[in-house]
Amino acid sequence: MSDARLSGYPLTYLPRDLTAGLVVFLVALPLCLGIALASGAPLFSGLVSGIIGGIVVGSISGSSTSVSGPAAGLTAIVIAQIAALGSFEAFLLAVMLGGVIQIVLGIVKAGSLSAFFPSSVIKGLLAAIGVILILKQIPHVVGHDSDPEGEMSFTQPDKQNTFSEILTVFEGDIHYGAAVVGLSSIALLVLWGRIKMLKNSVIPGPLMVVLLGVSLHILFQRTGGPWAIEASHLVQIPVAETAGDLLTFLKFPDFTQWANPAIYVAAATIAIVASLETLLNLEAVDKLDPENRNSPSSRELIAQGVGNVTAGMIGGLPVTSVIVRGSVNVNAGAKTKVSCIFHGVLLLISVALIPVYMNMIPLAALAAILLVTGFKLASPALFRQMWSEGRYQFLPFMITLLSIVFTDLLIGILIGLGVSLLFILNSSLRQPIRRIVETHAGGDVLHVELANQVSFLNRAALDTVFNDAPPGTNMLIDASGTDYIDPDILSLIQEFKDKIGPARGMKVSLRGFRKKYQLNDEIQFADYSTRELKDRITPDQVLQILREGNERFYTGNRLSRDLGHQVNATAGEQNPLAVVLSCIDSRVPAELVLDLGIGDIFSVRVAGNVIGNKSLGSIEYGVAVVGVKLVLVLGHTRCGAVTSTVELMCEDDNALQVTGCSHLESIVNEIVPCVDEETCSEIPRMSQDEKERFIDETARRNVCRSVYEIKARSEVLRNLVDAGKVMVVGALYDVKSGKMEFLTDPSAEPEYEQSPQA
């Protein structure tokens, strides 16, 4: 990428932003006019909002891809409020005040509410817009323009609905000239997207579609007859003879209505609905962004508020972030908000300077662009993805989609949010907690993990968990991840801990409750190794604890430990259950891979997990003095010490010559007896996989040899093993899977050259 920049803006982005802005402009032009017409407002008000949405909102917004303008979702509200307030000028005052409310909402960070919108509703919105674009543009593509472009509701102004309008088309209400433009435009866009040379060209396909449409319009106009495309099938920007005439198109708010309570009701309605639609559309466009950028939602509310104050002052409709424009912007390859601003500049130029030429564009050509965009939004891949995520995602997704298609954008979104809320409540009622049976050093513990929000609705489910717990259970109620607990739930927990649980022989422990709840942390079970446990446990039981710990580790079900509690509990004395001799490899921390806590093991680490005088002395101390019941030699695959030893043997080198380290030779000498010399000579001809298998097998033999050497070199350990009081076993840890293979069968141990010290 070039380093050329203009005030921090990479100039390499400019071509993509300008072409995307051009495409959005072409789509926005008829939408601005159509939404104004559908809203019962002056046509020019829609264009004013489009210009403000591009230049004013685009300049303040922090989104790189969102595009604002008059919104189809507000048409019903605009119609109702203009009628209620008695004039368009009074309505403009409400728009201004609504903008002020939005600015306040942005300042108090109300945009953070967007984080609570379910992804299923957002994706349902995207798919619904795609479906609506397809269904609504079919009539326009073939010249059936009885309803304004941009009208998105199921029930239409001409008393038809989305589907009956399409049936009317098939009954023969087609304009041949417009149909040729529309169908040829679709074909051109499809080819443009599939031919690599055209797809990667600087010229955007939608621009060629518009040029094709204008050319065919001129041709049909000269031909005359039924093929000629009349004004009703073309863009219709109001044309002013002079700049002064242009200003007469502007409307201004009626400030005499400031004392009318209905103005403030209308302002609040506009602010709330426009903010909701903006936040949803912003989230939806962010999901389309290939760079996965996150738009600042509260800043967007401020930008929309400034836009609506401006719109109200000069005669525009309310503006919101608009998913249709935003999706077209993303699909056209926009990189930054420059594309949004540029589209607003183009709208201004077209209105002020070249309206006559813009009025030569057939609506069928622009409908083709929207129809193709619709197919991208409502792609089969999206439906397959939602189906694969299960019914709790798929059902809200489909209900949102169908609700929007069969009502309108705003009602459909509200239905989708309502259904998602019901699913969330249902899920919360069924499972407000997470239950895990954990095997701690002192026995099994039923870990009850409370959700982030625990309301009175969860009381029945939590009561069921308490009642289903068997008598004598150790139970841990964990509120570490909880922000709110209803007083009814706190009362239930307190009663169960103090009365019901003890009456059933249960020990109820608490963790993570905030001070204001007056439930102090109290652990009544041993989540660390105690003297009592160490004295009564057998070597086989210790081995089983280690097996289960590693299984929890590699399956991702590690215990939830209060390490601070363990630090305090073990400060006075230590009572570990085992000694673990492991390699210094950073990938094999013994406590983690065995899912153990503080004070559970003695950990001895040396490269290659080999036996030397100091490591053997540490093991003897742990077994003979402290009284642990098990010694585990823990080796691992892809061991660096084993690999180095094999390479040194094959190349007939020694560690001092190769590394300059004078003390490594003692480690290498312990591993050398485990290396098969005959196989070692074949290493230069081995594949990488074969070499890895040989090294891993050598590591396995090295573990078994260390087990043998511990018993051979230490008389005190050998006697304890022979008496059945202590067990010495090996294990090989797989660094790729995290799983251990425990080597407990003595008959499987390979033959070794005996150590001269044995």
Please mark out the parts with pLDDT under 50 across 5 or more consecutive residues, or reply none. 753-758
> Which strand order does the major sheet show?
12-11-13-14-15
Strand content: 5-15%
Helix coverage percent of residues?
A: 55-70%
Compose a concise summary of this entry.
The protein is α/β, with parallel strands linked by helices and 758 residues long. Helices cover 56% and strands 9% of the residues.
Describe the structure.
This protein is of the alpha/beta class and 758 residues long. 56% of the residues lie in helices and 9% in strands. The protein is built from 32 helices and 15 strands. The C terminus is likely disordered.
State the main characteristics:
single chain, 758 residues, alpha/beta, 5-stranded mixed sheet, 4-stranded mixed sheet, disordered C terminus
What is the secondary structure topology, with strand pairs?
Elements: E1 5-6, E2 9-10, H1 14-38, H2 43-60, E3 68-70, H3 75-85, H4 88-107, H5 119-141, H6 162-170, H7 176-194, H8 196-199, H9 205-223, H10 243-248, H11 261-288, H12 297-314, E4 319-321, H13 323-331, H14 338-352, H15 355-358, H16 363-377, H17 380-388, H18 391-406, H19 409-430, E5 433-440, E6 443-450, E7 453-454, H20 459-468, E8 474-478, E9 484-485, H21 487-503, E10 507-511, H22 531-536, H23 539-555, H24 563-569, E11 578-582, H25 590-593, E12 601-605, H26 613-626, E13 630-636, H27 640-650, H28 655-659, H29 665-671, H30 677-680, H31 688-713, H32 715-722, E14 727-733, E15 740-743
Parallel strand pairs: 6-8, 7-9, 8-10, 11-12, 11-13, 13-14
Antiparallel strand pairs: 1-2, 3-4, 5-6, 14-15
